[in-house]
Design goal:
binds adenosine-5-diphosphoribose; 6-stranded parallel sheet; 14 strands; Rossmann fold; alpha/beta
Length: 311
């Protein structure tokens, strides 16, 4: 069977790590695409990664390009094209610049690979994935945003740090938009099946929820220039792998809701089943009144940013 083809649109901080992880997992051949000004940079990254492969024998070709023809018929696209945040910025502050980039990227992907599965990472996430969907005209199961996967992994990390138990045994989810209004569902968080609410106090849990909501900003502040890239890259790779290997993983993703959780026609973080069919299903479950009202609140924030796209 021929190897799959993974196209990374944007070869910056997240893009470079996506290439590394995709190669290490042998998901397929990797093409890193960037603008002509950055062509040398992505060609250089690709060559560096090619030379890392012999150590563990990863059989994947990695190349860099600024020519759209080179991503023709790729199976998966992961989009990080755009600019990241600087300290003091909200993700929404990126809208104007990143929307223009996303429109261009969507039109080109539509032309080069009309049957691809597309994972959007560029921010403001919920509006960018919506923009891709509108401009490309792709079916909803083949367009998804990476946010909940990352927000949940941040929530898991903080629970593991607070309890002192293995991060591997922490299960939890964060729903809603990829902004400060996101909704960590503490009620369902467990450590090895034991409810977290029985392990730590509600004050401790509240602190963890608050830290989760602004976890991206915490890193932006520390960096002083740019935003997180290791965990975002791994989160998107989990999603790509679920698709390529038909794993039917259940991952919180920004998927198009058409009535689920009372949300109509917006991409927002909900538990999504990812397999060979792309986003195959959204798993709905009963929320408490408080959770539903928090979800309504985050939806309001998403709607506001989406309205600004004029799409
Ligand atoms: N087509 C392809 N690539 C582009 C385009 C375009 N039209 N415009 C910009 N890029 C590239 C840049 O040249 C750069 O290499 O996108 C890359 C972005 O990389 P970084 O600046 O390092 O940003 P990164 O940290 O990877 O974040 C990318 O993901 O999490 C979000 O908020 C973050 O929107 C940001 C995006």
């Amino acid at each position: 069977m021929a190897r799959k083809k993974i196209a990374l649109i944007g070869g910056g901080q997240i893009g470079g790590n996506l290439a590394l992880l995709a190669a290490q997992k042998e998901l397929g051949d990797v093409i890193i695409f960037d603008i002509p000004k950055a062509e040398g940079m992505v060609k250089g990254k690709a060559l560096d990664l090619m030379q890392l492969r012999p150590h563990d024998g990863y059989d994947a070709d990695i190349s860099g390009t600024s020519n759209w023809d080179d991503v023709k018929n790729a199976d998966v696209f992961i989009i990080t094209a755009g600019i990241p945040r600087k300290p003091g910025m909200n993700r929404e502050d990126l809208l104007e610049i990143n929307l223009g980039i996303m429109k261009d990227v969507a039109a080109n992907i539509k032309e080069q690979a009309p049957n691809a599965f597309v994972i959007v990472i560029s921010n403001p996430l919920d509006a960018m994935v919506y923009a891709f969907y509108k401009v490309s005209g792709f079916p909803k199961n083949r367009v998804v945003g990476m946010a909940g996967a990352l927000d949940s992994t941040r929530f898991r990390t903080f629970i593991a740090m607070e309890t002192g138990y293995s991060v591997q045994d922490v299960t939890c989810m964060v729903l809603g938009g990829h902004g400060d209004t996101m909704v960590p569902i503490s009620r369902l968080a467990t450590v090895g099946g034991v409810p977290v609410t029985d392990l730590i106090s509600s004050e401790q849990l509240k602190k963890i929820e608050d830290r989760t909501r602004v976890a991206g900003g915490e890193i932006v502040k520390l960096f002083g220039n740019g935003s997180a890239f290791y965990a975002p890259a791994q989160s998107a790779i989990e999603m790509a792998e679920a698709f390529l290997r038909d794993k039917k993983r259940v991952i919180p993703c920004a998927s198009l809701c058409e009535g689920e959780f009372g949300i109509e026609d917006y991409f927002i973080g909900v538990p999504s089943v990812i397999g060979a069919g792309g986003v195959e299903n959204i798993l709905e479950f009963a929320l408490t009144d408080k959770e539903q009202s928090e979800l309504n609140n985050t939806l309001k924030a998403v709607k506001k940013t989406v309205a600004e796209t004029d799409l």
